[in-house]
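debug: dumping io for the single-chain case to check the tokenizer round-trip. Nothing else runs in this session.
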Amino acid sequence: MPSIFAVANPKGGSGKTTVAIILAGEFAKHGYSVAIVDADPQGSSYQWHASSVARGLSPQGVDLVRAPDEKALAQAIDRLDGYDVVVVDTPGYYGDVLIQSGGAAPPGGGAGGGAPLAAAPGGGAPPPRPP
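debug: decoded output
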């Protein structure tokens, strides 16, 4: 089970994508297998990753998965069990993806069912260092 870090703030333009990319890169630099889940319909993390690959600057050790809605986010989290660290780049508005990435069930239920998907603020220690 990976350590999951959600970079979340309901305000757009607050630097969530930048923080998510830097956080993922630092974990990868230290030998962790890392995936970024781009849960923002704007797709900024995806655009960064694609442009890096197109320029021959493939981010080593960082994979990216698009999950632009609540259902895709739940499916992505389930599929990324083999990673050490998963960083979720959330959208800049208060919606179901942001609610789910924080571990609360969306209004009316939905995927996640209240199971925490993100590290608690101030918590969320990284997994043990790989050998």
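debug: round-trip ok. Confidence is low (pLDDT under 50) at residues 103-123.
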